[in-house]
Design brief:
This protein is of the alpha/beta class. Helices cover 40% and strands 27% of the residues. The protein has a domain of 155 residues: Vaccinia Virus protein VP39 (Rossmann fold, 3-Layer(aba) Sandwich), CATH 3.40.50.150. It has nine helices and eight strands. Strands 1, 2, 3, 4, 5, 6, 7 and 8 form an eight-stranded mixed beta sheet that branches. GO terms for molecular function: methyltransferase activity. This is Methylase.
Length: 225
């Protein structure tokens, strides 16, 4: 099964020596995967806690605190930039600015990959009671469409892949979706029984526990010029 990581690696191939920026890098899972394939990775995230985790496993990487709307790197620093499940977390009016910043720090002819979860799938429905992201995911899609329409980038590829996750039990699912988010954690505690019913209703049974699917839209962009 093709994954979002497969498509990211393909978009920037060959990876050895590529300078790539992970915008909204969190604890560094994607950055580690790209570095393992030979890329030179930098990252940015507003969370000090997440950055500390990323630095622990990638001490050589250039990982900085900050906002996607104002990237602290010079024009043309990178061969490519990636947003993975992060664009919709940028405050609404800043989504377009974040995309323009990605184009600035890459530059003409270089790539940007945006991976965004769709407001559908069993994973989305299972967590909707904890946080319903329908509106902000639609807002991110609209910002991406407006960015492409401005002519700053051309869309090279636009496809959907499934992220498939297996959880041993409800606690494992709740740990996954509330990690580092006090608001989600509070919602989970307040409505645990109903959330458990949602998970059981949406999940397929698989080896190792409950299987949930999240469709991800993967858009590969090329900066114009």
């Amino acid at each position: 099964m093709t994954t979002a990581l497969d498509l990211i690696a393909e978009a920037f191939a060959p990876l050895p020596g590529r300078r790539l920026l992970d915008i909204g890098c969190g604890a560094g899972a994607l950055a580690r995967a790209l570095a393992a394939r030979g890329a030179t990775v930098a990252g940015l995230d507003p969370s000090a806690t997440a950055l500390a985790q990323a630095r622990a496993s990638l001490p050589e990487a250039d990982l900085r605190p900050g906002a996607a709307e104002a990237l602290p790197w010079a024009d043309g620093t990178f061969d490519g930039a990636v947003f993975v499940n992060s664009l919709h977390h940028v405050p609404g009016p800043g989504m377009g600015a974040a995309l323009r910043e990605a184009a600035r720090v890459t530059g003409p002819g270089r790539g940007i990959v945006v991976v965004e979860p769709l407001a559908e799938g069993s994973f989305f429905r299972a967590m909707r009671r904890i946080e319903d992201e329908t509106a902000i995911r639609a807002e991110a899609a609209a910002a991406l469409a407006a960015f492409a329409a401005d002519g700053v980038v051309a869309i090279e590829r636009d496809t959907v892949v499934d992220r498939v996750e297996t959880f041993a039990d409800l606690d494992a699912f709740l740990a996954r979706v509330t990690a580092g988010d006090p608001g989600r954690a509070a919602a989970a505690r307040a409505d645990r029984a109903a959330i458990g019913e949602d998970v059981r209703a949406q999940a397929a049974r698989g080896e190792g526990g409950f299987v949930l699917r999240q469709p991800l839209r993967v858009v590969v962009l090329r900066v114009a010029g």
